[in-house]
Write a structure and sequence with these properties.
It is a single chain. The protein is α/β, with parallel strands linked by helices and 382 residues long. It has two domains: 129 residues, NAD(P)-binding Rossmann-like Domain (Rossmann fold), CATH 3.40.50.720; 244 residues, 2-Layer Sandwich (Dihydrodipicolinate Reductase, domain 2), CATH 3.30.360. The chain is 33% helix and 25% strand. It has ten helices and 17 strands. The strands form three sheets. The chain has a nine-stranded mixed β-sheet. A six-stranded parallel β-sheet has the order 3-2-1-4-5-6, with helices on both faces. The protein has a two-stranded antiparallel sheet with strand order 9-10. Strand 4, helix 4 and strand 5 form a beta-alpha-beta unit. 48% of the residues are buried. The structure holds nicotinamide-adenine-dinucleotide (NAD). Nicotinamide-adenine-dinucleotide binds next to helix 1. Nicotinamide-adenine-dinucleotide (NAD) binds next to helix 1. This is Putative dehydrogenase. Keywords: Oxidoreductase. One of its GO terms (molecular function) is oxidoreductase activity. InterPro entries: Gfo/Idh/MocA-like_OxRdtase_N, Gfo/Idh/MocA_oxidrdct_glycsds, GFO_IDH_MocA-like_dom, NAD(P)-bd_dom_sf.
Length: 382
């Protein structure tokens, strides 16, 4: 086989997502036959010592402490943005102007208006881009997409999704700074809406099409927290919990809920879709299974079947082990890298692109607006 084309990666941010993406770049060519090979060229973080420790551990060739310098480097092909939400736009727009490919973490932006400026910049530059809504690439979720596209559900009536956590219940937890920037609206944009519901919305738009309008409520249970950087007690302005109803363009009804106050739940992302002919449900805690009910089955055998999505004819699975042996969370990032590299070779975009991720931003904005004014809001078409 011909030597693979190198794709030099410049990673910005070495936290949780910096690790999942690095794992994806390192493993992808061991399992997928691709024209391109990611090269871990440089990692960028504000602390040189921490960046060096990360580089040594994961095998990055060099470090930078300013993302602008990383973008200026001629030996970097792609910028991977793994930093808090309030930095995505500035880094992505500068990377696009420098002609770099961009892989950006979700949510795309702080809000819809900022997201629109990013999409304009990226489309003007014509650079390959993708946003890491990785749950699309859980094989069971990709299988759900295939079953829906094959028409097996028929007309869809209901879409229900939850993303439940319990890690912010203590009023002693500070907001802001490393690890806790998610509680600080200035860094995160919003609370569970942009952090967790954005995943549910992305999957829903992909599986069930556009959302036309929404009616939402949000709550901030702990009203003040100490800021971990300033030490001051400050008001909390993120949404701790959010629930919304919506109408999809295909006529189905949606019900979404997310909270960080569901004691006992760590990352319970679930969805269920009820169609005229069949229903589907999925649960992140059992991510390799897809539950499927087919009304067309012989009545005496009819019931929910639990498909263990590990066969070689299931999405992505022929690249891994043998039927029956399952894979996990980290593989979704390997799959996204594989799809991005495959797209580059084929000259095709990798979904979700910035423009596709903007649609999720439009729904998030409508949800937050609706909660604020207490009325249904129309989702701005993008
Ligand atoms: N796809 C997913 O499932 C998923 C999961 C978690 C987080 N995310 C997203 O990934 C992004 C990062 O989240 P995380 O959980 O990795 O956060 P994290 O706090 O673990 O890591 C953030 C990193 O960014 C660095 N950083 C902050 N400002 C910087 C700057 N100006 N220049 C360089 N580095 C800077 C921090 O030092 C840290 O290394 C967020 O946008 C988040 O919403 C996505």
């Amino acid at each position: 086989m011909a030597a693979k084309k190198p794709l030099n990666i410049g990673l910005v941010g070495y936290g949780f997502m910096g690790r999942t993406h690095s794992n994806g770049y390192k493993r992808v060519n061991d399992f997928f036959d691709l024209e391109y090979r990611p090269v871990l060229k440089a990692v960028c973080g504000r602390s040189a010592a921490n960046a060096q420790t990360f580089a040594d551990k994961w095998g990055y060739e060099s470090i930078e402490t300013d993302w602008r310098k990383l973008i200026d480097r001629k030996d970097i092909d792609a910028i991977d943005i793994c930093t808090p939400n309030n930095t995505h736009a500035e880094i992505a727009i500068a990377a696009a102007a420098a002609g770099k490919m961009i892989l950006c973490e979700k949510p795309l932006s702080m809000d819809l208006v900022e997201g629109q400026t990013m999409v304009e910049a990226i489309e003007k530059a014509g650079v390959p881009n993708t946003v890491w809504y990785n749950y699309r690439r859980v094989p069971a979720v990709t299988l759900a997409k295939q079953l829906i596209d094959e028409g097996r559900l028929g007309r869809v009536f209901h879409y229900r999704a939850n993303f439940l956590q319990d890690w912010t219940i203590s009023s002693e937890l500070p907001q802001g700074g490393a690890g806790l920037w998610r509680l600080d609206a200035a860094a995160a944009g919003s609370g569970v809406t942009g952090d967790l519901l954005a995943h549910c919305i992305d999957t829903a738009l992909w599986l069930n099409g556009g959302i036309s309008n929404v009616s939402a409520m949000t709550e901030t249970f702990i009203k003040e927290r100490k800021h971990s950087e300033t030490g001051k007690v400050e008001p909390v302005s993120i949404d701790d919990a959010c629930a919304f109803l919506c109408r999809f363009e295909n006529g189905s009804l949606g019900l979404f809920e997310s909270t960080r106050y569901a004691r006992g739940h760590k990352a319970l992302y679930t969805f269920e879709i009820n169609g005229e002919k069949a229903s589907i449900k999925w649960d992140l805690h059992d991510l390799h299974r897809l539950e499927y009910f087919d009304h067309g089955d012989e009545s005496k055998l009819r019931g929910w079947r639990s498909i263990h999505v590990t066969d070689s004819d299931h999405p992505y699975m022929k690249h891994w082990w043998v039927p029956g042996l399952q894979i996990g969370y980290e593989h979704t990032f390997v799959h996204q890298v594989a799809d991005f590299l495959g797209g580059l070779a084929a000259g095709k975009p990798t979904s979700p692109t910035f423009r596709e991720a903007l649609a999720t931003q439009a729904v998030c904005d409508a949800v937050l607006d609706s909660a604020e004014v207490g009325q249904w809001q129309t989702v701005v078409p993008v």
